[in-house]
Amino acid sequence: MINKKNLWFLTLFSLVLVLSVYYVTMPNELLVTTNGNNLSNTSSEDETSEEVSIEESSVISALKVEDDNQVLEEINELKKTLTGLDITTEDKNVAFEKLKTINQNNGKEETLEAKIKNEYDLEAFVKITNDQVRVVVGSSEHSTKLANEIMNTVQEEFDSKMYISVQFQG
């Protein structure tokens, strides 16, 4: 049975996907004039979105902030590729696929962090890169049993075999 959280996620993901396809298929001339007019508005929005209050352990918070910054930089580069006038259609398709993969990984990472929080009552940072999953758990308890349980919980979310590492910080 689909719950409200999954329904909202699917709805928003579908909306982002449709808008992305629309954005990629827009004529380049329209993109140049639109981007030029909105350039000053986006800089002020970026400044306000960076202010975040953090209540988690400092190591996990630092990892999340660093990862968010890297993802934002990568997304901005991919957006530049998508809006470039002299970029080929194949390159735009590759950039769009990378953007879609980033969005899917971010959703899966958030799901895994919430699952670890619910099942083990631990704050966690999860980073998915290709077939590797890195989990950093904010816990003073460093047990191999807990690490194995977390690894099994993470593996349940994937169809293929993933290389999972669990690190304790606390």
Describe the model.
It is built from five helices and three strands, in the order H-H-H-H-E-E-H-E. Strands 1-2-3 form a three-stranded mixed sheet, with helices on both faces. Residues 34-56 have low confidence and may be disordered. It has a domain at 57-170: Stage III sporulation protein AH-like (Helix Hairpins), CATH 1.10.287. The protein has helices spanning 4-25, 28-49, 58-83, 89-120, 144-155; strands spanning 123-129, 132-138, 163-169. The chain is elongated. Strand 1 and strand 2 (132-138) form a beta hairpin. It is an alpha+beta fold and 170 residues long.
Percent in helix: 55-70%
Give the topology string: H per helix, E per strand.
Answer: HHHHEEHE
Main sheet record: 3 strands, mixed
User: Which homologous superfamily in CATH is the superfamily of the domain at 57-170?
Assistant: Stage III sporulation protein AH-like
By DSSP (H or I, 4+ residues per run), the number of helices equals 5
Q: Reading side by side through the largest sheet, how are the strands ordered? A: 1-2-3
Q: What is the global morphology? A: elongated
C-alpha-based Rg, rounded: 19 Å
CATH topology of the domain at 57-170: Helix Hairpins
Beta-strand residue percentage: 5-15%
Determine and state the CATH class of the domain at 57-170: Mainly Alpha
Give a short summary of the structure.
By secondary structure, the chain is an alpha+beta fold. It is built from five helices and three strands, in the order ααααββαβ.
Outline the secondary-structure elements:
Layout: H1 4-25, H2 28-49, H3 58-83, H4 89-120, E1 123-129, E2 132-138, H5 144-155, E3 163-169
Parallel strand pairs: 2-3
Antiparallel strand pairs: 1-2
Helix pairs in contact: 1-4, 3-4
